[in-house]
Design goal:
Length: 487
């Protein structure tokens, strides 16, 4: 696709949520019309911040964010804001427009067809599954037909068919798209350039090419810089050894030592400022609570068909060490089952009393956003040991500064890592995991998969990430789509 004029330009943009901790430091880049660009970087590097600077929700401390005159913008957020979950579908889409839209119902129907979703217009958003909400978020942005479409983790909660449908649409979308995602195959299918945010230098590097080629290019560049520095370090050390030897000699030898010192200074100036690669969390173990009795008993459960609940009879018991994966299409009731089980409000899905439960909710709604990360971890510890807490937090890249922050100020990826740090400290007997790969940097996923594979407690998992699931052992499979329901 031909690209025209520059539609977005960042000129030496500096931004930080406080003066002592910058997210961007004199960052500069440009995006042309109709380009499809990935925003890439470690959790907390500022990817979502870039989008908010483009929309104007945030203002730079220094520098400028320049948009093409008259360009319209729409953003597909990661999650529907909590305060909007009580709205109906119609009320939700009404707020996408500043003026009253008289053909709104038709426009909603058209955009829902694009995202492959059938949704009654008077149904509340809170009644939709995570995957259906992901489609509604995308539709909310698309109905505005923006010149600049900003997508923040658009594949979260989408099943395979949903991702394929979205990919095809974006490949044909005739305008500019900037996307944040940890789904490498999805990104590689349609993006043609990368903006890489370096969490250490707070700069933005711009690359042209498909996603996987750019990832390889970054890795190769890093290795070249490391090799160059290794050669320079060896050369510097050799000269220092000679300086130490010649400095104690007289006459010409002392002059030679002085000359070598000048050469050392020059070599040190030539050292490449190697960009620190994205860190990966260290290997970890989730200790399991000792528990001899059955941990979970499922005798009946609710299955959603055509937005109507139906009961299905089932006999399933989970004991310590048994892993269950729950599958089925978006909207059938997978998240509802996990939530019902955790809330203990359905006699057909019961957790035995005394079992400690670690629950990863895909929207993090079980976390208190007003608490600090430190207090969130402290709350699950049997014995409040500061040193242990900080050691575990550091395994998940939660630094001392981040621990002081309120949970609500963390990036979505950092919230996810906080949940796993909590499990390590909690020592649960049962893990309930609802799309635990959402928002998590792809580099961390093999480490998390290994920990879950080796977990000795009972576990129930819902995930559409096939590669992630393939790395974990499962003793039981529950496909809600194949259950026979009562009339």
């Amino acid at each position: 696709m031909d690209h025209g004029n520059v539609i977005i330009r960042f000129s030496d943009v500096t931004f930080g949520y406080d003066e002592d901790h910058l997210t961007l430091d004199e960052a500069s880049f440009s995006v042309r019309e109709n380009a499809k660009v990935t925003i890439m970087g470690q959790n907390g590097a500022g990817k979502s911040t870039i989008l908010k600077l483009i929309t104007g929700d945030l203002k730079p401390i220094e520098g400028g964010v320049h948009l093409q005159k008259g360009a319209t913008i729409a953003t597909s957020l990661q999650v529907i804001p909590r305060e909007r979950l009580s709205e109906t579908v119609r009320e939700y889409f009404e707020k996408a427009f500043t003026e009253k839209t008289y053909n709104l119902d038709k426009r909603i129907a058209d955009v829902l067809e694009i995202v492959n979703l059938v949704a009654p217009l008077d149904k509340k958003l809170s009644e939709f599954s995570g995957g259906q909400q992901a489609r509604l978020l995308l539709a909310y942005a698309l109905i505005q037909n923006p010149d600049i479409l900003l997508l923040d983790e658009p594949t979260n909660n989408l099943d395979k068919a949903g991702i394929e449908h979205l990919t095809g649409f974006l490949m044909m979308y005739p305008k500019t798209v900037l996307v944040i995602s940890h789904d490498a195959d999805f990104l590689n299918a349609f993006t043609e350039g990368v903006l890489h945010l370096d969490i250490f230098t707070h700069k933005v590097e711009q690359y042209v090419g498909n996603y996987l080629n750019v990832v390889e290019e970054i890795a190769a560049r890093l290795e070249r810089e490391r090799m160059q520095n290794a050669r320079l370090l060896k050369d510097i050390q050799d000269r220092k050894d000679k300086v130490n030897f010649f400095a104690n000699k007289g006459g010409k030898m002392r002059k030679l030592a002085s000359k070598l010192r000048d050469q050392i200074e020059t070599a040190e100036e030539e050292m490449v400022d190697v960009r620190q690669d994205d860190k990966t969390i260290r290997e970890f173990e989730i200790p399991a609570q000792e528990f001899d009795q059955p941990i979970v008993k499922l005798t009946s459960l609710k299955v959603i068909k055509n937005y109507e609940p139906h009961r299905a009879q089932i006999e399933l018991v989970l004991r310590r060490g048994r892993h269950l994966i729950v599958s089925g299409p978006n909207g059938i009731g997978k998240s509802t089952l996990l939530r019902t089980l955790a809330d203990n409000n359905d006699p057909g899905a019961v957790i035995t009393e005394g079992v400690r439960v670690g629950y990863y909710r895909q929207d993090f709604s079980d976390l208190d956003f007003d608490k600090t990360a430190y207090d969130t971890l402290l709350a699950v510890m049997e014995a409040p040991l500061n040193e242990k807490l900080r050691a575990v937090a550091s395994q998940f890249l939660l630094t001392s500064n981040l621990l002081k922050n309120k949970v609500g100020s963390l990036s979505e990826g950092q919230k996810g890592l906080l949940c796993f740090a909590r499990f390590v400290l909690q020592k649960p007997g049962l893990l309930i995991l609802d799309e635990p790969t959402n928002h998590i940097n792809f580099r961390h996923l093999p480490v998390i998969a290994q920990a879950l594979n080796e977990y000795q407690g009972a576990m129930i998992l819902v995930s559409h990430a096939e590669e992630f699931v393939s790395q974990i052992r499962f003793d039981e499979t529950l496909d809600l789509g194949t259950l026979r329901t009562e009339a």
